[in-house]
Amino acid sequence: MIPVEIADADIDEIAAFMGRNFDAADCRQILKARETLDVQAAPGSGKTTLLVAKLALLGARWSHARQGICVLSHTNVARVEVETRLHLHPAGRALLSYPHFIGTIQTFAHQYLALPYLRGLGITLRSVDDARFTAAARRLVKLNSFWHARKYLERNPNRAEGILSSLTLSGADLDLTCGESLPSETTDTFKSFHNLKWRLARDGVFRFADMFAFAQRALREVPGIAEAVSSRFPVVFFDEMQDTGALQEALAEAAFGNRSTIQRFGDCNQGIFDSSDHAEAPNSFPVEDAVDLSHSRRFGPFIAAAASTLTVVRAQKIVGNTDRAEKRHAIFLFDRSCVDRVLPAFGDHVLAEFPAPLAYGFVAKAVALRKKGEGASWPRHLGDYWPDFDATQTSRSNGLNTLIGYVRRARAVLTEDGALHAAAPIIWEGVTALLHNHACELPTGESIGKKSVLRALDETVPDASARLLAAVHECCLGPPLVEANWKTIVQNLVTSLTPLISTASAADDFLIWDSEAPAVDDKPTERRNTYEHLGDGRSVAIDLNTIAGVKGETHDATLVLTSSKSKLYDVKEALGPLSGTAAARAKTTIPPQLMNLFVGITRPKSLLCLAVVADHMTEPQKTALIGNGWLIQDLRVLR
Description:
The structure is a single chain. By secondary structure, the chain is of the alpha/beta class. The chain has 4 domains: 8-112 and 216-293, P-loop containing nucleotide triphosphate hydrolases (Rossmann fold, 3-Layer(aba) Sandwich), CATH 3.40.50.300; 130-206; 301-389 and 529-638, Rossmann fold, CATH 3.40.50; 391-528, no CATH class. The chain is 41% helix and 14% strand. The protein is built from 22 helices and 19 strands. Strand 16 (564-565) and strand 17 form a beta hairpin. Helix 3 (47-61) crosses helix 4. Mean pLDDT is 87; it is low at 274-281, 394-399 and 517-526.
């Protein structure tokens, strides 16, 4: 049981502070609940706001100096959102430091399970990073000790990088697995790769996934570790529980069991799966008697009714916000001959539905399941609608293995977006990677992040955080990136971090100058992956992205584009449920497609549009959709 009781007066106080209304019975039930609980929340229902309000209320009355509240999420995006909102409330800020923990399940497993276990084995971590592991494996395999592995790579050059980059320890047995096929475990070649992996492990060089395996190992092999973890965190919250995989849930169950009070928040209908993580789904969320948050503040009754037809995992009748003015939600029919008219038609419709001028911060987006990929079916992805779409620009800092890579990426973003707040987080990722590479441990025991690092610096040397902030600022806006300037930039950064790490130098692999990567042009460039539509003397910017890329966002207007995979078309599969003419098909690949689609159609607060291949819609479906209030525009008649 949660050792803090929340009263109605407390709820009224936090509601007034946050400017929100928590009078609904389900909201009060969730805020007051002290036992284990699941909350099934519709899109836009205020789930995260409720969670943050509850955390702030608990933080104000938490009296345990060495026991804390643990808040777990699947992604760093969810973690950052919770932390940012908590920072606005005086009591909420207390949860951002010891004895509490807010982070991803991966980070939790690393910090509280894998790291203590590895220390017990006498292993000192030098690096936990996929790119750094690959570079180290590439160097090490050249030694004669790994002759069989090297010869195998020489005979299979096209698979060499894939093998070295994906050698992973898996499960509590620490089995060696690989993204590429390897010879039998009885062969000298497999044993050579096995020895290579464990040589790197003894040297303290790991992949991120290795830490999860060591966490599983620790829970199985170390007596009392689960009891210690659950005693340390008697209260646990999960955010975005629907994205937590079965393996992650099993680890949490082993760590906390029924010893901690666990409250889970999420929307099982918004799970995003792809070929890499679908094997882990589904988890047990939500339980049968979960609290149902069905009222959405984001969109009106029309979008709520459409979304309700696609709640394929757990049926939910979503209730829309009647204060939202309904627009004319549209479906654009097209074929190959007029696919180039889809984005302009959406742009014209947006300008017709929204008065001039568009509100400051107006957001219009066109989204699809896929950003790239081959296939015989059509349309496949975003590029089939707009040939200028650049699939490489949807990621920011993934896969970087040098600080200069982070700095170049940050400066490119600054040039593209013109906003320091968009570039600085990329530099902070580089700083975090540097600290992890040197096995930095903060004196407070907190996980490494911007706020915890700044706090730790000031606790060690007064005003030391100011020097680090200045160094980060220099990385973003400093002198041109040439080798002579780079040495000064690195020296300033390393000096600012000296209270935490003393071994870093400009000679480190992570910090060296890399002349191979092209310098960033300082001249402003056009916004990438943004279609600028002009009509009747007005304009609207329409950003293109994947559905996964916009998860958690709220738009003014959203266009969901038909995409295909394995000859299955997502929007086509949704037409039956949307029109009410048929239920979703039972084929196993259909529900994940519709779950992705559900995320897409629940992004807009005002205008929802769909782009449908004309031949995919039957006449009964068309008649029913028009009867439901959809405006259907056939772009083929404009030929």
